[in-house]
């Protein structure tokens, strides 16, 4: 079909497109390589297998948005089919009458699938256009010319394919499988005889070129736009974190000279790859408690700002890295960095498995450890941790006073025990949380459990220090606790605090503290299953359950608390829309407990509104810090009819 001049033009156009795409690929590859090395090559089979599974079944795009996910998947699957169609398209141009697939049943099947997906893809384009430019859904904050360009490309590709096939059949030489093209031939193209074979040939060539040039332009555009996520995303999935969620690397405080991430090239290569993997879909903003409560932080914008800065820094990265801007303050505001509660909701829903918290923690560590800059309220927190081993700064010698009348044995006196009760700072010093600890102890005593506690030997687990970037104080607390714990014999540690649970279970092992750690929800579930505690269920209260972030998202404990509450209450548990994996933080995590929320609404107030919407009168949780936040929120918002309880309190009330 093509003349020899056209064939040369085609080859030149392919070379030009490949050259432009490769130049941009090389530039971005160099940008990513400017980051710090990170080792994520373990379990390659698992990494590759999970990536292929997710990409080919398009699992991540269905998260949160089934309809959008379906149309997204349609475009992806359609493009796989069009790979074959496009190869054949090129072959037809070069060799008139030739088909890579012959003209038998395989060819007809390919055409049938291509027609089917062309129709579905056109529907998908209309859906995305209406969603983005007519309804302007809130998570897609501004109309993007890049998305419009891509929608135009995809639409033109499909239409040019259908009409190219229709002109191939003109005037009436029908081809099996070409059902959409046949419809276009019968209803859109001129009547038989109205076109000369010369005009038909011109139309064929025009549509052939249009289709092929759009494909080339699309290929180049992907490399230069946010649609690079089509290539970077699958690679990002391969290098996902297979370890502890939002793991904070252990700093070597004695040997390292630099802490955190002062500049863009201090981020690791996976962090930089994240920036190009972001599809700007806004799922992270939809679930972020900081963003949803009107604060400065938007996890989506955070990545976008870092990406724009990385691109703008290209000339300096290799020639003069010392002149790079500081990330904190010059690229990302302090407010954004301190707004994060480290709840991990953004990471849970991100289809590209981007790791937002690592970037925020890097800036926090730099700010606290290198510049001694942090929210002023943290002065009291750090002083308390340093001097008294608790964030309130209350005299460490009074740590076990809450338990004076409970006759709990000290492990130092008992010597050996089955359960070592890790009370935590809240249970030891906060009056609401002391009630939780007391309820739990009473349940243990009723169950006849063999347990003891550390008393005044216990120190803060270190979570508030670590999540606020003060790694130095975290390591001091952690090492002291590990030294104490390693001194005693016990089978397992039980705690009522998900923060202590997470740190002891997942972070102490890196420092030589290896223990079997259970959350009290797990132990209560076990005791009830073994009939060691009996309760009198009631149906007088309407319960909803709040998943604490460090119990649910960080440690996947969703079912045991719910089963306990179902046993307790004969009424169905009233679930909040944001529950389980997409639970909405109470606002206390990541140091939030210890500082003021200076902008937007209080996060705990937003959560109380969500709880109230279920019609529940009691919000049950499994974390003393969530309890503190909800007690305050109830008082501050005048919702005195609402009540908040911990699982242990809810069960102890009904013990028989
Ligand atoms: S970070 Fe993930 S969830 Fe957020 S906009 Fe980018 S791709 Fe979407
Ligand atoms: S961890 Fe939570 S608060 Fe921080 S950016 Fe992600 S969703 Fe927002």
> How much strand content do the residues show?
under 5%
Helix content: 55-70%
Strand order of the largest sheet: 2-1-3-4
Low-pLDDT ranges: none
Task: Supply the helix-strand structural class.
Answer: mainly alpha
- The number of helical elements comes to 30
Bound molecules: iron/sulfur cluster
Overall number of domains: 4
Rg, Cα atoms, Å: 30 Å
The total count of strands amounts to 7
In short:
This protein is mostly helical.
Features:
single chain; 656 residues; mainly alpha; Fumarate Reductase Iron-sulfur Protein, Chain B, domain 2; Rossmann fold; 4 domains; four-stranded parallel beta sheet; three-stranded parallel beta sheet; 7 strands; elongated; binds iron/sulfur cluster
Can you describe this structure?
- The chain is mainly α.
- It has 4 domains: 64-238; 264-371, Orthogonal Bundle (Fumarate Reductase Iron-sulfur Protein, Chain B, domain 2), CATH 1.10.1060.10; 390-529, Rossmann fold, CATH 3.40.50; 543-653, Rossmann fold, CATH 3.40.50.
- It is 56% helix and 5% strand.
- It has 30 helices and 7 strands.
- The protein has helices spanning 4-33, 44-57, 59-62, 66-94, 105-134, 145-169, 179-187, 197-224, 229-238, 269-277, 283-287, 289-292, 299-312, 314-319, 327-330, 334-339, 345-349, 356-371, 378-388, 411-414, 424-429, 431-446, 463-467, 471-485, 498-507, 520-529, 559-568, 603-613, 624-636, 647-653; strands at 416-422, 451-453, 489-495, 517-519, 543-545, 618-621, 643-646.
- Strands 2-1-3-4 form a 4-stranded parallel beta sheet.
- Strand 6, helix 29 and strand 7 form a beta-alpha-beta unit.
- Helix 2 packs antiparallel against helix 9, helix 6 (145-169) packs across helix 7 and helix 28 (603-613) crosses helix 29.
- The longest helix is centred in the N-terminal third of the chain and has 30 residues, at 4-33.
- The model has no long low-confidence stretch (mean pLDDT 95).
- Bound molecules: iron/sulfur cluster (2 copies).
- One iron/sulfur cluster binds next to helix 12, helix 17 and helix 18.
């Amino acid at each position: 079909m093509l003349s020899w001049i056209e064939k040369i033009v085609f080859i030149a156009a392919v070379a030009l497109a490949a050259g432009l795409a490769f130049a941009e690929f090389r530039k971005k590859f160099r940008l990513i390589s400017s980051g710090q090395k990170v080792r994520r090559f373990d379990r390659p089979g698992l990494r590759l297998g999970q990536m292929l599974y997710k990409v080919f079944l398009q699992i991540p795009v269905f998260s949160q948005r089934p309809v959008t996910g379906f149309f997204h998947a349609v475009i992806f699957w359609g493009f796989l089919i069009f790979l074959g169609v496009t190869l054949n398209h090129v072959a037809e141009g070069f060799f008139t009458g030739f088909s890579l697939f012959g003209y038998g049943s395989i060819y007809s099947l390919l055409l049938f699938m291509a027609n089917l997906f062309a129709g579905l893809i056109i529907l998908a384009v209309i859906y995305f256009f209406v969603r983005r430019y007519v309804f302007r859904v809130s998570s897609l904050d501004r109309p993007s010319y890049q998305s419009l360009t891509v929608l135009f490309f995809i639409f033109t590709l499909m239409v040019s394919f259908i009409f190219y096939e229709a002109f191939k059949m003109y005037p009436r030489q029908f081809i099996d499988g070409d059902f959409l093209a046949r419809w276009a031939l019968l209803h859109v193209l001129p009547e038989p005889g109205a076109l000369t074979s010369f005009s038909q040939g011109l139309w064929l060539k025009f549509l052939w070129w249009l289709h092929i040039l759009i494909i080339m332009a699309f290929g180049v555009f992907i490399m230069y736009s946010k649609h690079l996520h089509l290539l970077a995303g699958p690679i990002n999935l391969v290098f996902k974190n297979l370890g502890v969620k939002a793991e904070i690397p252990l700093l070597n405080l004695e040997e390292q000279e630099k802490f955190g991430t002062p500049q863009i090239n201090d981020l690791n290569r996976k962090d930089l790859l994240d920036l190009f993997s972001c599809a700007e879909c806004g799922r992270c903003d939809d679930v972020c408690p900081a963003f949803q409560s009107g604060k400065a932080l938007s996890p989506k914008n955070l990545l976008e700002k870092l990406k724009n800065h990385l691109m703008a820094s290209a000339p300096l990265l290799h020639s003069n890295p010392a002149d790079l801007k500081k990330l904190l303050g010059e690229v990302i505001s302090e407010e954004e960095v301190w707004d994060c509660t480290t709840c991990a909701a953004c990471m849970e829903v991100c289809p590209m498995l981007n790791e937002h918290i690592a970037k925020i923690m890097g800036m926090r560590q730099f700010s606290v450890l290198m510049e001694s800059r942090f929210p002023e309220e943290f002065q009291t927190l750090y002083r308390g941790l340093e001097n008294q081993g608790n964030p309130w700064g209350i005299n460490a010698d009074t740590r076990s006073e809450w338990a004076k009348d409970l006759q709990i044995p000290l492990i130092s006196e008992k010597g050996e025990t089955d359960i070592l009760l890790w009370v935590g700072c809240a249970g030891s010093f906060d009056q609401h949380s002391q009630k939780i600890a007391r309820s739990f102890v009473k349940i243990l005593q009723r169950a006849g459990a063999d347990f003891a506690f550390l008393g005044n030997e216990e120190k803060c687990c270190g979570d508030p220090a670590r999540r606020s970037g003060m790694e130095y104080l975290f390591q001091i607390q952690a090492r002291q606790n590990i030294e104490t714990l390693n001194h005693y014999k016990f089978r397992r540690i039980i705690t009522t605090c998900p923060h202590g649970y997470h740190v002891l279970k997942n972070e102490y092992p890196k420092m030589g503290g290896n223990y079997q750690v259970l959350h009290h929800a797990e132990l209560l579930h076990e005791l009830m299953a073994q009939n060691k505690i009996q309760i009198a269920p009631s149906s007088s209260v309407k319960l909803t359950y709040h998943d604490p972030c460090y119990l649910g998202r960080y440690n996947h404990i969703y079912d045991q608390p719910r089963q306990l509450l179902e046993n307790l209450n004969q009424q169905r548990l009233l679930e909040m829309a944001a529950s389980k994996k997409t639970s909405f933080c109470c606002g206390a995590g990541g140091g939030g407990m210890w500082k003021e929320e200076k902008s937007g609404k209080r996060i705990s107030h937003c959560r109380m509104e969500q709880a109230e919407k279920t019609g529940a009168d009691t919000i049950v949780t499994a974390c003393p810090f969530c309890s503190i936040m909800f007690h305050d929120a109830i008082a501050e918002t005048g919702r005195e009819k609402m009540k908040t309880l911990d699982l242990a309190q809810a069960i102890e009330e009904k013990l028989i």
